[in-house]
Automatic annotation (TrEMBL):
This is CopG family transcriptional regulator. It comes from Streptomyces thermocarboxydovorans. The keyword Coiled coil applies. Residues 34-68 form a coiled coil. The keyword Coiled coil applies. Keywords: Coiled coil.
Length: 88
């Protein structure tokens, strides 16, 4: 992916906090990853808004079912990870 140098203004305390955490990626990589994450979240929100506009809001039951499914997937993932950790 092509990159472009830009200038941004960030609170000094935030820069210092980031500098304490970064590895080889450096501050630029850290901020680029944060911006990419925010961009993905914004796009996801836009998609959710379009879907809600097209299909209507989820019911409480649909929301609960989705949360239960997410919890089941998280649980399965944790079990898989625990199993691979024990095998190592």
């Amino acid at each position: 992916m092509a990159t472009r140098k830009i200038t941004i203004t960030v609170p000094e305390e935030l820069v210092e906090s980031i500098k304490q955490r970064v590895d080889a990626r450096g501050v630029s990589g850290y901020i680029a990853a944060a911006a990419a994450h925010q961009d993905a979240m914004d796009r996801l929100r836009e998609l959710a808004d379009r879907l809600e506009e097209e299909h209507g809001s989820l019911t409480d039951e649909e929301q609960q079912a989705a949360l239960e499914r997410i919890a089941a997937v998280d649980s399965w993932h944790d079990e898989q990870r625990s199993g691979s950790d024990e095998a190592a």
